[in-house]
Design goal:
The structure is a single chain. A hairpin with a 5-residue loop joins strand 1 and strand 2. The protein has three helices and five strands; from the N terminus they run ββαβααββ. The chain is globular. Helices cover about 15% and strands about 20% of the residues. It has one domain: Beta-grasp domain (Ubiquitin-like (UB roll), Roll). By secondary structure, the protein is an alpha+beta fold. The protein has a five-stranded mixed β-sheet.
Length: about 110
Amino acid sequence: MGHITFVEHNGTTHQVQLETDKTLMQLAKDNYVPGIDADCGGACACGTCHVFIDNSWISKTGSAAAHELQMLNLTPEKTANSRLACQIDLSAQLDGLVVHLPESQM
């Protein structure tokens, strides 16, 4: 199976095995990736699983829906490539995905 790489704001990387049928948030939590708190448990009701998606991966991860954008608007470091990890369903096509974590979550 493939892998996903999480990059902390300080550059520390965490490469984890890709598991399909999970969300990016679940994968991070299951692998103890720091900076993904997921306070709401994946209900898209907080911003504590905020990640930055590289522009080259946006077409594969998709864009944020309206309800996700409402939560992202409350995060201090929102950018055009911000997503909530709880809203990204993992599939084999995301093998090699690299996501960056905002400084405010560390």
